[in-house]
Amino acid sequence: xxxxxxxxxxxxxxxxxxxxxxxxxxxxxxxxxxxxxxxxxxxxxxxxxxxxxxxxxxxxxxxxxxxxxxxxxxxxxxxxxxxxxxxxxxxxxxxxxxxxxxxxxxxxxxxxxxxxxxxxxxxxxxxxxxxxxxxxxxxxxxxxxxxxxxxxxxxxxxxxxxxxxxxxxxxxxxxxxxxxxxxxxxxxxxxxxxxxxxxxxxxxxxxxxxxxxxxxxxxxxxxxxxxxxxxxxxxxxxxxxxxxxxxxxxxxxxxxxxxxxxxxxxxxxxxxxxxxxx
Length: 278
What we know:
Oligomer: single chain
Radius of gyration: 18 Å
Structural class: mainly alpha
Mean pLDDT: 89
Order of helices and strands: HHHHHHHHHHHHH
Number of helices: 13
């Protein structure tokens, strides 16, 4: 019998789609939702399921930014054979994304036992939600928001890429929150920070989903819940991406900061009273 029903998979797909690219921690929200439904959050098949349905959200990014991705990949391909093309920003950016993904792959493989063990606790999620809120608020205040997407550099990509490690090690910190905050500290504007977060997340999250597939399709989670959860996350994530890019063009991240603090405090209360099992 599957540890996750089709109905639960659909709900988790909605949660994943809404939260994957918002700076509120999709992993944290998924763990909270799983905990409230009585699903064992530290079960390897459940961890695998969580990673796989993220691929649905990543597919939404690929579709939404299809033209940008084709442009960047094409420039990279031309640059491999044409020296003149290597001066093009898109060619350089493609390499930056590749280089910026290497640190999180190394740490992800090395720290897998910790990530799926002690760090999977909802206590960690609660603390990371609140600490991450402080980081995000400070970054939004410190950043001068004066640099656009065309102004990004290799240093920006590497620092923002490495910041994904925070979300990997501390579920609840938020990959989007960590990357956007780092980009803001580097003085990128909010739209540029958000788009950079999207592009850097594509290889990291896709790789994680494919790597975890073997655990998710084992005896714990069947194919039907996987398909439903992934499909739902795709549809919802696409809408979430469109909304977020419009939102950050006109607003600060304060609403997300407040929301994270409220959720983190509520989670601490539920854990402290025993209403929710860590």
